[in-house]
Amino acid sequence: MSQIKRLDASLANHLDRRKSRGTLRSLTLASPGMADFSSNAYLSLSAQPSVRVEYLARLQAAAALEASPAAHLSPPLLGSGGSRLLDGNSAAAEALEQTLAAFHNAPAALLFNSAMDANVGLFSCVPQPDDAIVYDELVHASIHDGMRLSRAGRKIPFAHNTVWIGSDGETAPRAADRRDGEPRPLEAILAGLLNGPGGHLFRSGDRSVFVAVEGVYSMDGDAAPLKEVTACVQRWLPLGNGFVIVDEAHSVGVFGDRGRGLVCELGLEDQVCARVLGFGKAMGCSGGLILCSEVTRSYLINYARTLIYTTAMAFPSLLSIQVSYEFVINGGAEPLVRHLRDLVNKTYHLLLAVCERQNPPAHLLRVSSVEPKSPIIPVFTDHPRSLASHCQRKGFMVRPIVAPTVHRGTERIRLCLHAANTAGEVIGIVAAIEDWLVARMDEARRIDTLKQNAVSKSKI
């Protein structure tokens, strides 16, 4: 067997195991004309005529300048020529960073090719040896990848969106009553760091604790309790060696005045040391950004490998970010945000009505009892592939979300609402979900009846 065939055979075994568990991934294409309840383009900016026209006009103007005798004054349209530390930097990139830093009330900003690159670069190089990273158990994979490369001595998860010990109003459970490995509240983790081995380094301020959360969590759609997180960090690390980092990929554009994000909405700019933005969601383009201090920006330029060793974004990408942000900054997205919020509210209450009418068992269908704060509404079911396929056949694009993307037992389809969706589409997809639910419940009742009949006959 050749080396390549031997490798393929080994990899095929891994794929077969994943397939047997029902978790095999594959690339698919959405059929044309399907109503989009899947993508992260919450504001539907790419479908806005004014945004499209402005982007194409500026791109054509840049192309005309490139073909003119003044070509040396224009950036290259195809490619950037290298990393930003070599030949890929541009006046357009630096001007865009200054604009975005000012808009988001931050001292400085640094562009990355994606939010994934931004998180990996930030978490891999900023925490120092003997520092600790404490992170919400549901943070994005990119933060985990950054932590794997980090020199931080400890990386500890805390229970999702749980800040204080006994925050539910009940007496905090004793350690002996907690399941092995179950994440604890943020406060308990910080207390353990300060009072455990090497805790004097954190109490004296000689070592730092970085606390990683997301503004909005992409699978559940819930927002982080940022005020509580920052208050807890300040309480337990009063010397200022606790640093909160917020991934705002799913909250920028949707939260805050003119889409500035959740940190700005809550007025916490001075209590968060870094924010990671992603432009591939509500902003309708691509790329990532870190909002931080000038010193942190300089440090990242020197140490963040995902910036240093990658080709910089080309001019068309920078232009798309600029045009989208101008639309948002000038208030063009405000009607879209209002319409989006109305759709989210309508969808959620229609789903609640389905649950009330049908009273399904929890394993078949359930939705959260907490009203959504974001455009993401998870619909939990033990049969996400079946439900997603049914909705797709009805003309609605939704995707099944299964382990390992989410914890086993929390499988779901995820409804992502967009400003371009209509009330009719919302009614249609909820009706499709109810049709599937009724069919599954009828099937379960038929099976139960057959079993009961079989038992009755056996007793005759």
Describe this structure in words.
Keywords: Pyridoxal phosphate, Transferase. Belongs to the class-II pyridoxal-phosphate-dependent aminotransferase family. BioF subfamily. This is 8-amino-7-oxononanoate synthase. One of its GO terms (biological process) is biotin biosynthetic process. With 460 residues, this protein is α/β, with parallel strands linked by helices. The chain has 2 domains: 29-47 and 334-449, Aspartate Aminotransferase, domain 1; 78-170 and 178-329, Type I PLP-dependent aspartate aminotransferase-like (Major domain) (Aspartate Aminotransferase, domain 2). The protein is built from 15 helices and 12 strands. The chain has helices spanning 3-20, 49-66, 91-103, 115-125, 141-149, 186-195, 199-203, 226-236, 262-265, 294-303, 305-308, 315-329, 334-358, 384-393, 423-459; strands at 35-36, 108-112, 132-136, 154-158, 209-214, 242-247, 274-278, 288-292, 376-380, 396-397, 400-401, 412-416. Strands 2-8-7-6-5-3-4 form a 7-stranded mixed β-sheet, sandwiched between helices. It has a 3-stranded antiparallel β-sheet with strand order 9-12-11. Strands 1-10 form a two-stranded parallel sheet. The longest helix is centred in the last third of the chain and has 37 residues, at 423-459. It starts with a helix and ends with a helix.
Name some characteristics of this structure.
460 residues; alpha/beta; Aspartate Aminotransferase, domain 1; Aspartate Aminotransferase, domain 2; 2 domains; seven-stranded mixed sheet; PyrdxlP-dep_Trfase_major
